[in-house]
Design goal:
The protein is 12% helix and 33% strand. With 67 residues, it is mainly β. The protein has a five-stranded mixed beta sheet with strand order 2-1-5-3-4, with no helix packed on it. Strand 3 and strand 4 form a beta hairpin. The termini are far apart.
Length: 67
């Protein structure tokens, strides 16, 4: 088990996962959003290369509409 914090809530992943696998496991696969790990933005091109580590803090941010 890999324990992480996602949007301020403790979550567990079944195995070491890259960002794409984490997004799929958390049910975000069809949404528009940005991902930051430990305060650093992760580009979509890096989702399959960047692996989640135990203790990482992940922010999944949806775009805001309006002004």
């Amino acid at each position: 088990m890999v324990e992480i914090i996602v949007n301020g809530e403790k979550k567990s992943l079944q195995k070491d996962s890259n960002v794409k696998e984490m997004i799929d496991a958390l049910g975000y696969e069809n949404s528009s959003f940005a991902v930051a790990i430990n305060g650093t933005f992760v580009s979509i091109k890096e989702y399959e290369k960047r692996y989640i580590k135990a203790g990482d803090t992940i922010d999944i941010l949806a775009p805001m509409v309006g002004g």
